[in-house]
Amino acid sequence: MFVPIRVIARSFVVFQLLLCVFIGSNVAIAEPKVDYGIDANKLYQEFLAMPEAKKKKITQDFSRLLNSSGTVMRSNHFHGIQTWQNPFDVWVTQEIISEVKPDLILETGTFRGGSSLMWAMYLEQVSPDGRVITIDIEDKRVPRSKTHPLAAKVDFLLGSSTASDVVADVKRRAKGKRVLIILDSLHTKDHVADELANYADLVPVGGYIIIQDTPVGAIDAIHEFVAANDAFEIDKSRERLLYTFNLDGFLKRVK
Ligand SMILES: C[S@@+](CC[C@H](N)C(=O)[O-])C[C@H]1O[C@@H](n2cnc3c(N)ncnc32)[C@H](O)[C@@H]1O
After folding, report:
1. Does 136 sit in the ligand 1 pocket, CB within 6 Å?
2. What is the domain range of residue 164?
3. Ligand 1 centroid vs 42 CA: distance in angstroms?
4. Per the structure, how many domains does the chain have?
5. Domain containing 142 — which CATH number?
6. What is the pLDDT of residue 39?
7. How far is the CA of 111 from the centre of ligand 1 (A)?
8. 113 CB under 6 A from ligand 1?
């Protein structure tokens, strides 16, 4: 069939016009101009410029406010399973999982089992064969944690995270794996120091150890650990959402 060159040229012009309209409408969607009556960026910059002690007090006061009743954060659930996580920290953690692409996540502190399943959900997207190891001194998992479809990706170890047999088992399972560590068991200085001493070597360069609930003691263990170990640095950029239970708790392996 013969199609005149004029028709082809016109069709091309129409196609280009449609393309412009399509791109134009997308740009408009991507950059909505909404005036909320506050300069959010200015407020954020003012907060960042405050003395460290003041910044810490604001975030800690807010943290205490949410935790003091014992019902706010503790009512958080993942797929119906009670999960003691700060949603802001979960957001940052899933960003780290997406960037680092570990194939093994080691979590200490299982509780009901919700957080281990949640890490498995994020991990599956970047490492389809990835696994989560979760450790607790007591098996407090609810039945749903064991029957959930993601439970097949999670290995539960019973015992103290610092017991020599548990440490040896973890190291055997972690051989040759890119490990990301999330410490959420006993948050005392001594216990976290012990966990760091036992497991930090498993993390590859560029990887992370995420230490949770640091203000109740762990933060001192972190400061001593980084002072003695220049392979790890506190990555403050991971606290950009400001409301974190993991103050100084995002440790990046830099060498
Ligand atoms: C804060 S909860 C963990 C919360 C859980 N990751 C979640 O998001 O739902 C702390 C857990 O650590 C456990 N734990 C305490 N001491 C421990 C230890 N030495 N080794 C491993 N787990 C421990 C407790 O039994 C408790 O279940």
Report:
1. yes
2. 76-253
3. 39
4. 1
5. 3.40.50.150
6. 74
7. 5
8. no
